[in-house]
Amino acid sequence: MSSADLFARAQLVIPGGVNSPVRSFGSVGGIPYFVERAEGPYVYDADGRRYIDYVQSYGPGILGHAHPKVVEAVTNAAAAGTTYGAPTEAEVVLAEMVIDRVAGLESVRFVSSGTEATMSAIRLARGATGRDRIVKFAGCYHGHADALLAAGGSGVANQGLSGCDGVTDGAVADTVVAPYNRVPELDDTVAGVIVEPVAANMGLVAPAPGFLEGLRTACDAAGALLVFDEVITGFRLASGGAAEHFDVTPDLWCFGKVIGGGLPVGAFGGRWNVMEHLAPLGGVYQAGTLSGNPLAMAAGRATLELLDEGAHARLADTATRLADGLARAFADAGLASVLPRVGPLLGVFFGPTEPTNFDEAKVLAENGIYPKVFHALLERGVALAPGAYEALFPSLAHDDEVIEATISAAAEAAASVPVA
Ligand SMILES: *Cc1c(COP(=O)(O)O)cnc(C)c1O
């Protein structure tokens, strides 16, 4: 059955035909491709087309799709039972691996999504400090928990929503939204400041020099906890994530995406004197039927094991070549673009200058060029995310040949887009 037929069928039984809004192509127009299978850098759709995939499930696919070692680990785990409701060695092993990689992280709890990780970290920050308010930054996306849906990037921005129906004023009453890249003033009502250390859900916006350090200092002065949402940066920016890359240590970390190797996993963690507030040690309740799921732990372990010494440097190299090549291809076609890059992370904006916050990012994301380039690229076998607020996710499976093919496709695609 074709993607068009599947989408028609899907819309009869699933709201918008999708289980996560950005997949609907709502902000780029057209019909989403339905994926049949994927391998390495490629996804194959229901119409028999192959795409070089820069979505990679929005981050989990750091090794590329269906890495044989990950598939084997998951298969073996499944044969031993898929969930028990009792602890397993696999959870201990993955926790040890995470703590080993992330300096300052002493204790970690697994959940099943990034949303659960941030939601739980916020509850913990409030419980540990006895304070109510949370500061977040406009354009940062921290999943879809009520308290964090104020001024969210990514899917929220792609839908053209400034907030979200169904979220009560009460639920966001203790959420303060500040502009990214400016250190807010904090007082003793603030439990925590949550931040994407590299903002990767408003396109890609790098932290200005001193911003993360400034947050650390401001949190220390106010007695608030600094929460790094490393759902995208974790295990991608460096083995120790953004904390290692920028040498700024938060009080709490949130992980997702890479940590699950393509299975539903999130995690949050921190120092013992914060984590000990969690049940069963302390009074902050948090739980999950499928938390620490054996398949998910196996996929996460296999993925982290495959991220060897040189992996992050290789990824950064790939991202650099991709960014440079795309910038050249777009420029040759007279299309002004900026491709912000931080290590292996990269984004694309069509416009003259690199944005430093959500307001600036919005201007470029909404200028109408991204959907045109997106479709021109898709026609030529290259899949970017169907939304201008998403980052690109080259994987370790994107070799030189794949990057060159992408850049050639981009040159053709850009030439086909009318310059305003
Ligand atoms: C994706 C994302 C989340 C939410 O993770 P889910 O697994 O989709 O719930 C939270 N924070 C950041 C920074 C993300 O990119």
Structure description:
There is one protein chain. This protein has 420 residues and is of the alpha/beta class. The protein folds into 2 domains: 3-66 and 308-416, Alpha-Beta Complex (Aspartate Aminotransferase, domain 1), CATH 3.90.1150.10; 68-306, Aspartate Aminotransferase, domain 2. It has helices spanning 3-13, 68-79, 89-101, 114-129, 155-158, 169-172, 211-222, 241-246, 272-275, 294-306, 311-332, 358-365, 369-379, 400-416, and strands at 35-39, 42-45, 50-53, 107-111, 133-137, 175-178, 190-195, 225-229, 252-255, 266-270, 341-342, 345-346, 382-383. The strands form 3 sheets. The chain has a 7-stranded mixed β-sheet with strand order 4-10-9-8-7-5-6, sandwiched between helices. A 4-stranded mixed β-sheet has the order 1-2-3-13. Strands 11-12 form a two-stranded antiparallel sheet. A hairpin with a 2-residue loop joins β11 and β12. It starts with a helix and ends with a helix. The mean pLDDT is 96. The structure holds pyridoxal-5'-phosphate (PLP). Pyridoxal-5'-phosphate binds next to α4. Pyridoxal-5'-phosphate (PLP) binds next to α4.
List keywords for this structure.
Aspartate Aminotransferase, domain 2, alpha/beta, 420 residues, globular, 7-stranded mixed sheet, 13% strand, 13 strands, 4-stranded mixed sheet, 36% helix, binds pyridoxal-5'-phosphate, Aspartate Aminotransferase, domain 1
Brief sketch in words of this structure:
With 420 residues, the protein is α/β, with parallel strands linked by helices. It is 36% helix and 13% strand.
